[in-house]
Amino acid sequence: MTNYLILGTGVAAMGAAETIRGVDKSGTISFIGEDPHGYYSRPGLAYYLTGEVDEKLLYPYRPQDYKALNAHFYHGTAAHILTQEHIVELSDSKRIPYDRLLIAVGSSAIRLSVPGANLEGVVKLDHMEDAKRILSSAKRARTAVVVGGGITALELAEGLAARKLKVHLLIRTARYWSNVLDEVESEIIEKRLKDEKITIHFESELVEILGKRGKVSGIRLADGQQVACDMLAYGIGIQPRMSMAKEAGIACERGILADEHLRTNLPDIFAAGDVAQVYDPASGRSVIDSLWGPAREQGAVAGMNMAGKNMAYLKAVPFNVTRLAGLTTTIIGAVGSGHDGDPVTIARGDSETWRDVPDAIIAQSGFDINHMRLMVASKTIVGAIVMGDQKLSSALQTIIRDRVDITSIREQLIAPNAPLADITAQFWAKVHASRN
Ligand SMILES: Cc1cc2nc3c(=O)[nH]c(=O)nc-3n(C[C@H](O)[C@H](O)[C@H](O)COP(=O)(O)OP(=O)(O)OC[C@H]3O[C@@H](n4cnc5c(N)ncnc54)[C@H](O)[C@@H]3O)c2cc1C
Question: Number of C-alpha atoms within 13 angstroms, CB side, residue 132?
Fold first, then answer.
């Protein structure tokens, strides 16, 4: 009987446990998880902050789902992996043996390191406890400063604005999310944020958080400007939690290195989800996808291989539907502008692949709430951003994922002011008909 041990209780961990139990009914499955709330939707925290979603809707599992896993849960922090002995030691010194181990401990928010970062009222958004802390601070605050230029910072800004705080958003670059969005798209989001009364400070560098009696009272920027506030929230990137793996001698680069079977360099140890930098045979690169869907899929494939099957993880085209300044936005494949911003920083709900600057011609149409950008290579579309009307996003996902030959419409797509949506819709209708 195999003894499976899974570190973490996030989506990668659950994906693994489900597939293990699917193929091995008798093995022992144990989890070590430090989050007191267990398994919940982390992307859903943004909607919890705005008040649109009640906490209980964030939990995907019902009691019968846990029962079906027939697993044992240890609440605690895994501290050391003793690879020779096949044991994981918790921070309270409890020792748990394993035959096969999965490291699925995710990533954590990069901490602010300016003076004043420890003051009361300085918050980040990593997990449920953070979200609760933010809501409790917001009750007593009137003005908030939010630091960061990606999705999480925007979610914080909008969550706090929805709680009736006056919000200042500090962005280091000259425009919003500049290494993924192009100028037109950044402008659309910035305009909508202004309409929501969120004040954006571009090219601003926070140098100090000011405090009074241990609490946040304002901030100071590199140019000397000061902004008074009683709360500061930040989302400045994430880092895979790999210190325990490194200490155990597991090979790491930007994340724990895993092959396409999600195996690390050490026997019987696998890694999946935000913590893993996974080899992609198609591109020959090892990539970190900080996205919910890939984490679940990687967990599932790791679980299969832990249970003795032989399954390779084939990286799907990154696909994310998110909401930016209230605008539904789908990002598919490689879309990066790559002109500015820090290409090394990973953000929540982000894929490294988005930042790739594809060898493609940009075709763009629409403005304001209905906007579409396609990255058109010689025979295929390699990336797309769809803002507003989402009728074509699923079609585009298939066209990009299946590398559908678009030679017949390429000239039309790249013509100036081409009606991209119409061309794509007509093309998709033909493709779809030929497949059915
Ligand atoms: C606010 C927010 C918004 C997001 N938005 C999106 C989005 O729009 N789209 C999208 O695709 N993705 C989004 N994401 C990212 C997505 O949630 C992650 O990619 C996904 O949760 C990664 O899953 P995981 O299982 O690898 O790690 P996690 O979900 O981080 O789970 C890791 C678990 O391990 C536990 N753990 C860590 N260290 C230890 C230890 N030493 N011992 C025991 N347990 C430990 C943690 O407590 C946690 O429960 C968002 C994330 C956040 C926080």
Answer: 6
Mutate-to-test residue for ligand 1 from 5, 14, 42, 152, highest number of ligand atoms within 8 A of CB: 42
Looking at the predicted structure, is the pLDDT value of residue 341 above 60? no
Predicted confidence (pLDDT) at residue 216 exceeds the cutoff of 50: yes
pLDDT value of residue 65: 94
Q: From the CB of 290, is ligand 1 less than 6 Å away?
A: yes
The protein residue whose alpha carbon is closest to atom 20 in ligand 1 is 292
Nearest CA to ligand 1 atom 4: 43
Residue of the CA atom closest to atom 27 of ligand 1: 106
Instruction: Note the Cα 403 to chain centre separation in Å.
Output: 25
What is residue 340's predicted lDDT score, i.e. its pLDDT? Answer: 44
- pTM as predicted: 0.94
